[in-house]
Design goal:
Layout lengths: L45 E5 L5 E5 L23 H28 L3 H21 L16 E6 L5 E6 L1
Antiparallel strand pairs: 1-2, 3-4
Length: 169
């Protein structure tokens, strides 16, 4: 006899019987029989409902699921490509970036003003304030001389920025 297989037992009715315990395991409850019995709803109608397999089964109407409601018609109007709220947020960001860039472009020349630039601004302000007083005469009298005065200025520039100036009266 081979040891790689269990011996076959013949199939008989005794071999296919369900398990039955030696004693009864069904719980027994004792209910008090005093008082009146109140029925919940004696007249609840019975309705036939399809189960998970498509068969119709009877069921009290109070325990049956709610009937299916028809689907509302779909809204087929075209939707915008971008969300309007997202467009507003993006526009605010672009506006802020553009404003910052514009202010930076307007104030960039101020970074290049040095001592010389400030000196020329000061000279321009002094000239602007003194020009009206000098144009009106300022209450002073100026004597004019009748003789002419000639000045000859010669400026010679050589290599490497060396300059020579001669003034002849």
């Amino acid at each position: 006899m081979s040891t790689d297989r269990a011996p076959e037992t013949p199939r008989t009715d005794a071999a296919v019987q369900p398990y039955r315990p030696a004693h009864d395991i069904t719980p027994h409850y004792q209910m008090p029989l005093t008082g009146t019995v109140q029925l919940h709803d004696e007249n609840d109608r019975i309705v036939w409902v399809p189960d998970a397999y498509g068969r119709m089964i009877p069921m009290p109407r109070s325990t049956a699921p709610a009937p299916m409601q028809p689907m509302p018609p779909r809204d087929l109007t075209p939707q915008p490509l971008l969300d309007p709220r997202a467009q507003m947020v993006a526009a605010g960001g672009v506006l802020a970036a553009g404003t910052g860039w514009g202010i930076g472009q307007a104030l960039a020349p101020l970074a290049g003003i040095g001592a010389g630039g400030l000196m020329w601004i000061a000279i321009a302000l002094v000239g602007w304030k003194l020009a009206p007083a000098l144009m009106s005469g300022g209450g002073r009298t100026v004597e004019r001389h009748t003789h002419e005065h000639h000045t000859h200025v010669t400026n010679t520039t050589r290599g490497f920025g060396r300059s020579t100036t001669n003034v002849n009266h």
